[in-house]
Design goal:
- Helix content is 78%, strand content 3%.
- The chain has 139 residues and is mainly α.
- It has a two-stranded antiparallel sheet with strand order 1-2.
- Strand 1 and strand 2 form a beta hairpin.
- Helix 4 runs antiparallel to helix 5.
- It is rod-shaped and about 90 Å long.
- It starts with a helix and ends with a helix.
Length: 139
């Protein structure tokens, strides 16, 4: 039993010696450990911000492309906003999907209109999507 207690005391003394080496005597703060933690935290924070920024840029690119193409097609900001809402509600990867064919636009716009609560919203959304359809596909 004694050898085990001796080993414990030796380990304890070694840990105390290590911790004393990291402690600043004036303030009682583990300076080196604090600096190491701060550096690790700063690196992790920097990596996290970089990753978040890259994801934001990746998500913004399809919307910028949609905005440019929709503007070139003569769609107003209100019409673009409606197409964006339809695409989001229908869980499409991008609103550009709605510009591919009249059947695609009709399908997703119809499902979007069905999800609206008030008859006034339904009527306005149907009128706007029909106006968008005529402008895009000339039908």
């Amino acid at each position: 039993m004694m050898p085990m207690l001796a080993q414990y005391n030796e380990r304890w003394e070694m840990l105390e010696a290590i911790s004393e080496a990291f402690v600043n005597e004036r303030f009682g703060v583990p300076t080196a450990g604090l600096v190491i933690c701060a550096v690790v935290l700063a690196v992790l924070l920097g990596l996290g911000v970089r990753r978040w920024w890259g994801q934001q840029q990746g998500q913004a690119a399809p919307l910028r492309t949609f905005s440019h193409i929709a503007g070139d097609l003569g769609l107003t900001w209100v019409e673009q906003w409606l197409l964006w809402r339809i695409a989001r509600q229908q869980q499409l990867p991008t609103p550009l999907t709605l510009l591919i064919s009249p059947a695609t636009l009709d399908h997703h716009a119809g499902r979007y209109v069905q999800s609206l609560a008030s008859p006034r919203q339904v009527q306005r959304a149907e009128a706007k999507t029909q106006a968008i359809r005529r402008r895009l596909f000339g039908e």
